[in-house]
Amino acid sequence: MGKANFNEFRFKGFEYNENATNKYINIKSRINDDKTKIIARYSLNQVFETPYGYGLRLDHDKGVWLKNWQVSKVWDEEFNEYQAEIVLDKNFTALAEFKENDDIHGDYDFSNIWESLMSLAEEQDGMVRWKK
What we know:
Elements: H1 3-10, E1 16-17, E2 24-27, E3 37-43, E4 47-50, E5 53-57, E6 62-66, E7 71-76, E8 81-89, E9 95-97, H2 113-123, E10 128-131
Antiparallel strand pairs: 1-2, 2-10, 3-8, 4-5, 5-6, 6-9, 7-8
């Protein structure tokens, strides 16, 4: 699968432009057409790298496992720091138990995690710049 075909898979249902700049793919919205994928921005202190990909910590003891291609670290000019843009797919977002970390406290409804994640993406509404 070529890079263009992979981006069609990764960003299926999103309106995006791969040729807008040399560094970034511009994505018009954070929620795709059929509401099965979202792109949400998280602080890097919630994201940690593993030998198999990444983990996204949503609360002190809960999170989601991610593949490398789901994460893009980008500069946030508003907060003057790097943050992580993360693609989440409703069909593959399973809540996992993580080792406790008292520094992270999320405000998610874990009985309906997808709706909570979609609410966050709606709050962050706006264009996404995905680093190539």
